[in-house]
Amino acid sequence: MANRRDVLRTQISIQLADFASTFNQSVARFRFQPGDYAVELMVPEGPSTGGGVQALQHLRLVSTQPNFPAIVIGAANRSAGIAELRSFQHVDIVHRERFKRPFPLEKAPYDQFIDVARTLFGAAQLKVTVTDSPPPEPPPAAAVVTAHSSSSTMILIVGIAIAVVLVAAVAVWLFFIKKGG
User: Fold this and answer.
1) DSSP helix/strand/coil, 134
2) Suppose 103 and one of 66, 67, 71, 92 were both cysteines; which one would form an S-S bond, judging by CB atoms 3.0 to 4.6 Å apart?
3) φ and ψ at 45, to 5 degrees?
4) How far is CA 23 from CA 76, 117, 167, in A?
5) What is the pLDDT of residues 146-176, one digit of tens each?
6) Which stretches does DSSP call E strand in the chain?
7) Collapsing DSSP states into helix, strand and coil, what is residue 6?
8) With contact defined as beta carbons under 8 Å apart, do 20 and 41 qualify?
9) 169 to 25, 153, 172: CA distances (angstroms)
10) Are 122 and 85 in contact (CB under 8 A)?
11) pLDDT in tens, 32-82
């Protein structure tokens, strides 16, 4: 017999799959050109979400045409009670960084979709935010290593200087002991 926690995990996974199905049916009328993009709220992979820990569902645009990339435009997390939608500006910034060209979809239909998605997520009792820009990027690892290496180098130099002074002091002390004795 499955324990209560396994049943709960399965129930959450089923609820999220049902939520994605209902959401996707509700927005099926939205198609974006070029690329014949459709909206998809993804279902968490696997039969379990770890009791809701892995309940994040990405919202993306998926093309029916070859060579058109999937584009993440938001996410929902029913366990946390939140949803994030990316504004046209946000998606355009990320698209330009990733593909070196502007986001090719028209702004007005995209904005209409965002309004509908905000309403649907709100009806599901999710707190909805719309982000206008991606979060700032963390400093590159090389910059962190350089800063760390710089301070390590300084500590090494100070340590060597102290050692040289100590050796010199001991040498002077030994010289005077032998001379005086």
Assistant:
1) coil
2) 92
3) -70, 145
4) 11, 8, 76
5) 555 567 777 878 878 888 887 877 777 777 7
6) 31-32, 37-41, 56-63, 71-77, 82-86, 127-131
7) helix
8) yes
9) 83, 24, 5
10) no
11) 999 999 999 998 776 655 555 667 999 999 999 998 999 999 999 988 999
Question: How many other CB atoms sit within 10 Å of the CB of residue 91?
Answer: 22
Provide the edge-to-edge strand list for the sheet that holds 71-77: 31-32, 37-41, 56-63, 71-77, 82-86, 127-131
d(CA 97, CA 172): 64
| Residue 43 neighbours by CB under 8 Å, 6+ apart | 16, 17, 20, 57
- How many angstroms separate the CA atoms of 122 and 135, rounded? 23
Cα 120 to Cα 56, 93, 106, 127, distances in angstroms: 17, 25, 22, 11
